[in-house]
Amino acid sequence: xxxxxxxxxxxxxxxxxxxxxxxxxxxxxxxxxxxxxxxxxxxxxxxxxxxxxxxxxxxxxxxxxxxxxxxxxxxxxxxxxxxxxxxxxxxxxxxxxxxxxxxxxxxxxxxxxxxxxxxxxxxxxxxxxxxxxxxxxxxxxxxxxxxxxxxxxxxxxxxxxxxxxxxxxxxxxxxxxxxxxxxxxxxxxxxxxxxxxxxxxxxxxxxxxxxxxxxxxxxxxxxxxxxxxxxxxxxxxxxxxxxxxxxxxxxxxxxxxxxxxxxxxxxxxxxxxxxxxxxxxxxxxxxxxxxxxxxxxxxxxxxxxxxxxxxxxxxxxxxxxxxxxxxxxxxxxxxxxxxxxxxxx
Amino acid sequence: xxxxxxxxxxxxxxxxxxxxxxxxxxxxxxxxxxxxxxxxxxxxxxxxxxxxxxxxxxxxxxxxxxxxxxxxxxxxxxxxxxxxxxxxxxxxxxxxxxxxxxxxxxxxxxxxxxxxxxxxxxxxxxxxxxxxxxxxxxxxxxxxxxxxxxxxxxxxxxxxxxxxxxxxxxxxxxxxxxxxxxxxxxxxxxxxxxxxxxxxxxxxxxxxxxxxxxxxxxxxxxxxxxxxxxxxxxxxxxxxxxxxxxxxxxxxxxxxxx
Lengths: 345, 258
Known about the structure:
The complex is a heterodimer of chains A (about 350) and B (about 260). With about 350 residues, chain A is an all-alpha fold. Chain A has helices spanning about 5-10, 15-30, 35-45, 55-90, 105-115, 125-150, 155-185, 185-195, 205-225, 225-230, 235-240, 245-270, 275-285, 290-315, 325-345.
């Protein structure tokens, strides 16, 4: 395929802001309490300074402070997780690579229980901060272990990083289990488990001021490295032979993926499946070239998580499902269908 | 008298886990020359090529590219001067033949120097050179081993470098494509180092380096180096050079040592 037809295939990218806006509107319009769509539009246009309609204060608060902020963070988080998965799959040349592979979710949960259950930080540190620090600590452990095992360069490096990630995850998960077994009440244990499966209900506007810049930064860095990501198609040695500084590229991109994932986990818990499945699904739909794959993955990740969040709120009346349950329950069959269809193509 | 040299290796050695993989290799390549590397399996040919490409670091000794130590040159600059084809390069990604060859243009592209007509041309030309022009929209996964090998050669060719390192590029190829790859190697003006198993192929090089257990046992013009005595010592076969009835290079006749 020449670059001309590649360009024509890229036309959908221009629609992506519309797709994203539609997803956000959808996320804002639907929820546990039924609010007429006209009210939703009124609130949004009022807040954006387009009209001055009389609006109920409660509706305004639900739509603007609760639902929209939540949808925005879901979109940023979905894009961040999907991009992190894509980066790791491309650089480690392993289709099973996903954002939690590097021990981030295990470390985050250990950090979260250290704060909430074991009382580390004496109430001065929030659970999110604990999770963030825990995630980064676990990643540092995994990176150092991989380094010590000689996994920093070449094709061997990818395998070593994955093994180190498994070891790190197991260790931090054991630590979490130990803390829970030692000191948590049944109520606390249940709360922790709920949090681990992902929960966006605590999200408010201040969270977006972290989530948006992180997602934009992550997308920017990834877009800047499109050719480098392509260069890894035939492995790290092949990438080096066509001029890629493998070590620098891996350090920078894996670092960015780690930050995106750790931030997302600290805000909303370990939402599984997005980072693994969205990049694969997009590969089947738009091919393996990263100039198409990166934008497609970011958009699809954002839309997928907003939609999953909506489903998690309305699936069971009067009850909010953990979003991680929804991403897996909805994502797995969809992924299966795409996989089967992709094979026939 | 000074001869311009493009790639120099001085006292290059590599030891892995106490095992000497390469020891004290000295070599200077003159621009445009074709050097054949031959030696039994495990004699260090691939490692030597990796070191020449700057992909593997020698424990001692130094590699100079255009007179500069290669470890001081940035990867991108090395890739603008040296292209290599590894023995095993595969992917599970879905991409077309053309997309695989386009990767060869990577060292020439940047944010300020996007894909252009020149790159398009280099890719088309590279595909034609290996006879894969009609395959450009085929999926990589549908190719045979030999076709993949030719695409890899095209990828390296598209890199437009003065030096080309080929690690057994004729593996998996049928005889027609073996000969066409060697014709291509002979035709190109680039400096080429090519690891080979077939001694007839080695006869077509300007110089041949024979390796055994990481050492260079002989280096010189093919007919001076590939003597029956050396072949029986290194490859453990009896070899005789037989004049070619069709004219041209002589041919080898091999028998097992008895």
